[in-house]
Amino acid sequence: MKKIIALLTGGTTGEWVISVKSAATIAQNLDADKFEVYKIMLTQQGWFYEPADSMKIEVDRNDFSLTIKGKKITFDGVFIAIHGAPGEDGKLQGYFDMIGLPYTTCDALTSAVTMNKGYTKAIVNGIDQLHIAKSAQIFKGGDYSLEQLKKDLKAPYFVKPNNGGSSIGMTKVNHPNDLQAAIDKAFKEDTQVLIEEFISGREFTIGVVKLDGKVTALPATEVETAKEFFDFEAKYTPGVATETTPAVIRDETRVRVEQIAKNVYAKLNCSGVVRIDFILTEDEGDFYFIEINTIPGQTATSFIPQQVAAAGIKLNDFYTKLIRETIG
């Protein structure tokens, strides 16, 4: 019997464009012999299934079902491919938990906590061999002193929306005089802002996934960009960044990195596939945690498909195992 899977895409943030591309990759690589897939678009206007041959059909949110030509369709599980709200922040996971429908991502609590970069860092702090940049978290309308921030933190800084994704609203500040403008920009995206000391080093990202009952780290990717940092343009415009998968690092560094990444996955109680961004200081020294993405991009140029290929796994098999692990 084929499993009936809802592939949920779209979302209510600027990242919905990437979500649609991710869903296209996933749809192309879900085994048609094993899964019957319905791609469902979630927007501020509603949740719809859009068959090629007819009008769009609204999802019944009482039980997340569809009625097509008089026949009711219910799902065995949901493949969530929504980056940002409401797919990555725990809201959808909470809804699916309440109606008893399994899904491919971290649970509601982990999803909600990991959307908040400051809270995440507090939880992973203390993991063996993991380092965290000195930072300050400020709140819109809250009582913060620009002068105190400049005293407490050394420039340059990264200023970022605490709950954002895809580097939207993020700025690298080289001079303390430019700090206020960067804070104002970040507050346009979020009510909480994180200001971090800049860590100099090589930038990497690594996928971690539970497959066949075992937590596995995928081959890491090194990211090099001519830009000041890996921003939205560098992430999604071909040619702006150079991505090397698997990253060229010493064997002992690779083993250490993979263990730290698996420890982060365990400490945050992750499930499904996540991606951890980090920096290695000079000569593959200290591992600095940047952030975790609990619904990483799956577009044709995204890191996870690159890393899956480097691990010698077909994307088709990877998604099959991911569904079996999370949905059953």
UniProtKB/TrEMBL annotation:
Domain ATP-grasp, chain residue ranges per copy: 124-324
Family, per entry: Belongs to the D-alanine--D-alanine ligase family.
GO MF annotation list: ATP binding; D-alanine-D-alanine ligase activity; metal ion binding
Binding sites annotated in the UniProt record for Mg(2+) 1: 277, 291
Positions annotated to bind Mg(2+) 2: 291, 293
Active site: 15, 166, 302
Pathway the protein acts in: Cell wall biogenesis; peptidoglycan biosynthesis
Swiss-Prot/TrEMBL keywords: ATP-binding, Cell shape, Cell wall biogenesis/degradation, Cytoplasm, Ligase, Magnesium, Manganese, Metal-binding, Nucleotide-binding, Peptidoglycan synthesis
Enzyme nomenclature, EC number: 6.3.2.4
Record keyword Ion transport present: no
The keyword Magnesium appears for this protein: yes
UniProt xrefs under SUPFAM superfamilies: Glutathione synthetase ATP-binding domain-like, PreATP-grasp domain
Top EC class, one word: ligase
Location in the cell: Cytoplasm
Gene Ontology biological-process entries: cell wall organization; peptidoglycan biosynthetic process; regulation of cell shape
Name by which UniProt lists this protein: D-alanine--D-alanine ligase
Cofactor stoichiometry and binding remark: Binds 2 magnesium or manganese ions per subunit.
Annotated GO CC locations: cytoplasm
Principal location: cytoplasm
Biological role stated in the UniProt entry: Cell wall formation.
Cofactor(s) needed: Mn(2+); Mg(2+)
Reactions catalysed, as given in the entry: 2 D-alanine + ATP = D-alanyl-D-alanine + ADP + phosphate + H(+)
